[in-house]
Amino acid sequence: MDSFRIAEERIKKAMEEGAFDRLPGAGKPLPKDEFASLPPEMRMAARMLKNAGFTQEDAHLRQDIRELERLVSNCDDPDQVRSLNEQLNEKRLRYNQLLSKRRIKTNSAMFKQYEDKIERKLFDK
User: Fold this and answer.
1) What's the half-sphere exposure (Cβ side, CA atoms, 13 Å) at 91?
2) Which of 42, 45, 63, 68 could pair covalently with 38 via S-S, beta carbons 3.0-4.6 A apart?
3) Tens-place pLDDT, residues 65-111
4) CA 23 to CA 15: how far, in whole Å?
């Protein structure tokens, strides 16, 4: 007997015994989907990021960091480079503080390039 049939039989037996009769929230509508405003193809990615502990604020900070890094690498004016580096350091500090509050390690060099590739695919347009 396959596992789906076994599971189906156990669910039917539990229903007959009334195991599902007094569950919390029974008879109430399901909560609204917080990702309903996103396009369907983006919802799963948003749920995965949220479940992994990442938020929109994280994503915006990472985008800002990448943009500042790009500006620094293309800038010729030393004063402007210094100013951009200060902004970049502030953004990195804020990002690390956010992750540290959630106990997410931020210094793993092993997966840094892989993380950057994934974030570029997800967040860059």
Assistant:
1) 19
2) 42
3) 999 999 999 999 999 999 998 998 888 888 888 877 776 665 555 45
4) 12
Q: Which regions of the chain does DSSP assign to beta strands (E)?
A: none
What pLDDT is recorded for position 104?
Answer: 61
The helix, strand and coil proportions of the chain, stated in percent and rounded to the nearest 5, come to 65, 0, 35
The C-alpha torsion from 53 through 57 and 58 to 62, rounded to 10°, is 160
Q: Is residue 123 exposed (0-12), middle (13-18) or buried (19+ Cβ within 10 Å)?
A: middle
DSSP tag of 63 = H
Contact 62, 95 (CB under 8 A): yes
What pTM was computed for the model?
0.50
User: What's the pLDDT tens digit per position in 41-64?
Assistant: 989 988 888 887 777 788 888 899
> Cβ(121)–Cβ(63) under 8 Å?
no
**Residue 24 DSSP class:** T
